[in-house]
C-alpha cells in the first residue's frame, strides 16, 4: 500500500494487483531479497525466525506487533525502537486486523456469556493481558497506561502504536478470506524465492483469486 498499489478493487470483486503500481511494489520487495540482499531469504527464515534475526542484529528492521515488545525488552543488551512503515510513492499506512470473542447462537447461557465478555474486554483484564505481552489492548485508556508504555524503557517511541492507528488499513474481509489469503501466499512464494517475476506472480494471483472473490457469499468493501 505504501507503494500506491492495491490487491483488490473497492468492492472486493476483482483482484487488481496486476496494475503497474501493484507489480512494481511486489518487484521492489523481491529485489530487497535477491538483488540488494538486505532482506533474508525463506531458507534463512526457516532456520531462524524474524524475531531472532532482529534481536541478534542480523536484520535492521522487523515488522512486528506491539505484543512482541515484552519479548524484545527481555533480551539482555538489545536496544530497539519503533518507526512507521517506510513510505514509498503511496500513502502512509499499515495493514491490521484484530480478533474478538463470539457467542454461539445456540448457547443456553447468554447472560453468563455476556457478563464474561464484559469482563474480558474490560480495563482490568485488558491491562493483565497487556502486562503479559499476550495482546495489545483495544481500549485507548489501557494503550496509554504507564504499565503498558513503561516510560524510560524501550521503545522510546511507543506512542507510535497509538498515534499510528489512524493510518491502519483493515485486512480484507470476505466470507472465504482464509481461502483467498492461502491462494495469494501460494502464488507469491515463487516470487519470494526468485523463481518468478512480479508480473508473472501478479497474473497468477489474479487468475486464482478472481474466481474465489466471485464465489464469496459475503464481502465488505475495502477502506
From TrEMBL:
Pfam family membership, one: SBP_bac_8
Keyword flag Cytoplasm: no
InterPro entries named among the record's database cross-references: SBP
UniProt record, GO biological process: maltodextrin transmembrane transport; maltose transport
GO CC aspect terms: ATP-binding cassette (ABC) transporter complex, substrate-binding subunit-containing
Keyword list, A-Z: Signal, Transport
GO molecular function per UniProt: maltose binding
Keyword Transport: yes
Family membership noted in the UniProt record: Belongs to the bacterial solute-binding protein 1 family.
Protein name per the record: ABC transporter, substrate-binding protein (Cluster 1, maltose/g3p/polyamine/iron)
Top-level taxonomy: Bacteria, Bacillati, Chloroflexota, environmental samples
Amino acid at each position: 500500500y505504501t507503494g500506491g498499489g492495491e490487491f483488490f478493487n473497492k468492492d472486493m470483486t476483482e483482484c487488481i494487483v496486476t496494475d503497474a503500481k501493484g507489480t512494481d511494489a511486489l518487484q521492489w520487495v523481491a529485489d530487497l531479497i535477491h538483488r540488494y540482499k538486505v532482506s533474508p531469504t525463506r531458507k534463512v527464515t526457516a532456520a531462524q525466525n524474524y524475531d531472532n534475526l532482529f534481536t541478534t542484529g542480523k536484520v535492521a528492521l522487523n515488522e512486528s506487533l506491539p505484543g512482541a515488545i515484552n519479548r524484545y525488552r527481555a533480551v539482555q543488551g538489545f536496544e530497539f525502537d519503533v518507526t512507521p512503515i517506510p513510505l514509498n510513492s503511496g500513502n502512509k499506512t499499515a495493514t491490521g486486523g484484530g480478533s474478538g470473542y463470539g457467542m454461539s447462537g445456540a448457547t443456553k447461557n447468554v447472560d453468563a456469556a455476556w457478563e464474561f465478555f464484559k469482563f474480558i474486554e474490560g480495563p482490568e483484564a485488558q491491562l493483565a493481558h497487556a502486562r503479559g505481552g499476550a495482546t495489545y489492548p483495544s481500549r485507548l485508556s489501557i494503550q496509554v497506561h504507564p504499565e503498558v508504555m513503561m516510560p524510560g524503557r524501550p521503545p522510546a517511541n511507543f506512542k507510535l502504536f497509538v498515534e499510528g492507528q489512524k493510518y491502519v488499513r483493515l485486512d480484507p474481509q470476505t466470507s472465504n478470506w482464509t481461502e483467498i489469503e492461502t491462494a495469494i501466499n501460494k502464488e507469491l512464494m515463487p516470487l519470494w524465492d526468485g523463481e518468478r517475476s512480479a508480473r508473472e506472480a501478479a497474473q497468477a494471483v489474479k487468475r486464482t483469486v478472481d474466481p474465489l472473490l466471485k464465489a464469496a457469499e459475503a464481502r465488505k468493501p475495502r477502506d
